[in-house]
Amino acid sequence: MAVLPIHVLGSPVLREETVPITTVTDELRRLADDMFETMHAAKGVGLAAPQVGRRERLAVVEVEQVRIVLINPEIVHREGDITWEEGCLSIPDVFGDVRRAAKVAVRALDRDGKPFEIEGTELLGVCLQHEIDHLHGRLFIDHLSFLKKRKALAAWDDEKAKYPAFIRDLALEVDTADRND
Ligand SMILES: [Zn+2]
User: Fold this and answer.
1) Which end of the chain has fewer CB atoms within 10 angstroms, the N or the C?
2) Burial (CB count within 10 angstroms: exposed 0-12, middle 13-18, buried 19+), residue 102
3) pLDDT digits (tens, 9 = 90+) for 76-97
4) Half-sphere exposure of 161 (CA within 13 A, CB side)
């Protein structure tokens, strides 16, 4: 397995629509494994393919030690609303309160290409919605109010110089943070 470079805000791939996966190949399973490894190295709870520069409709989530591979995920049910402070491995050190559905049901294919459905609330529910957003070129900052988005982008202005060519190389990062973003 390998820790992959993470694309950060400014990299065009983060704003692109992904392409649905027609066949789950061994290469894609390896990609999912590498994405888990990358997510762990970055101390995150979810990672979507565009964040590692890929266009496949694939994301991984790990909440409370349960690993979930999501291929072609779709939200099939939403209920209620919740406000949660979110961050993103592609916008390091920027946070904001996002309002989302309190509970979602998601239909997807697993790493063997078999359909399954999962429900999530709280962190899992938020994480599912955040990662599925990534697969459609959307970022959590897009959900912020105008003023909060401006504040987040101003914070990012101070951060982005750390990431030449909009690439975050985790191997170069000293382990100073211990957050779950
Ligand atoms: Zn994210």
Assistant:
1) N
2) middle
3) 999 999 999 999 999 999 999 9
4) 4
Give the residue numbers annotated as catalytic, written as ranges: 131
Q: Where are the domains of the chain?
A: 6-172
Across 113-149, b (16+ Cβ under 10 Å) vs e yields eeeeebebeeebbbbbbbbbbbbeebbbbebbeeeee
Contact 106, 118 (CB under 8 A): yes
Bridge partners (DSSP) of residue 19 are: 56
Rounded distance from Cα 47 to ligand 1 centre (Å): 6
What superfamily in CATH does domain 6-172 come from? Answer: Peptide deformylase (3.90.45.10)
**Exposure letters 72-97 (e unless 16+ CB within 10 A, then b):** bbeeeeeeeeeebebbbbbbbebbbe
SS3 91: coil
Ligand 1 geometric centre to CA of 74 (Å): 17
Q: How far is the CA of 71 from the centre of ligand 1 (A)?
A: 16
Residues with CB under 5 A from ligand 1 (ion): 88
Q: What is the pTM of this model?
A: 0.93
